């Protein structure tokens, strides 16, 4: 069981997946909030049942699963609906991630939480020992979004602007890895952090 948990966070298109893959390559278990968010609203889950009771069947597909497009349209047009949805899903996501972290068999566990800053930071996840921020320039995010997701210029800029500011992310970070270079450079940075986290986990 891992008792030392390191969060990986960062803005959209900052390269968080490449970072977590580099930790996994070194035998470190990764618990992913994006995957947890899907699990807690899977067909048959209590989360989906509560969403259906709250918002009605209009947010379901024909096979009874969550209609993500319909849900996304609803919460972006109605701030109260978004708050209500987060009240249903966030506690379940936190509980699932904590369970996965506690069951991890690596010396420490990495917990990928893209929106850690936006959802309350360390107050929301008091069991985190350390926070690693994956940081890139906004123009790099924009360029990657345009290339990766074939977005329009304005859509990409709106998505970046809707997230927490770099300063807000840095305020909760213990470590920062700049991801403007090559994958080899990123891997070198993760190797150094891996050594640090092994030492910190051993001391803890």
Provide a descriptive summary of the structure in words.
- The chain has helices at 16-25, 33-39, 46-55, 68-77, 79-103, 138-148, 153-162, 166-172, 183-203; strands at 5-10, 29-32, 109-112, 130-135, 175-178.
- The model has no long low-confidence stretch (mean pLDDT 91).
- A 5-stranded parallel sheet has the order 2-3-1-4-5, sandwiched between helices.
- Helix 4 crosses helix 5.
- The chain is α/β, with parallel strands linked by helices.
- The longest helix has 25 residues, at 79-103.
- It is built from 9 helices and 5 strands; from the N terminus they run βαβααααββαααβα.
- Helix content is 54%, strand content 12%.
Topology, pairings included?
Elements: E1 5-10, H1 16-25, E2 29-32, H2 33-39, H3 46-55, H4 68-77, H5 79-103, E3 109-112, E4 130-135, H6 138-148, H7 153-162, H8 166-172, E5 175-178, H9 183-203
Parallel strand pairs: 1-3, 1-4, 2-3, 4-5
Helix pairs in contact: 1-9, 2-5, 4-5, 6-7
How much of the sequence lies in strands comes to 5-15%
> What structural class do you assign from the helix and strand content?
alpha/beta
Q: What is the H/E string?
A: EHEHHHHEEHHHEH
Radius of gyration: 18 Å
The number of distinct helices, counting runs of at least 4 residues, comes to 9
Q: How many β-strands, per DSSP?
A: 5
Q: Overall mean pLDDT score?
A: 91
- Classify the helix fraction into a percent range: 40-55%
Spatial strand arrangement across the major sheet: 2-3-1-4-5
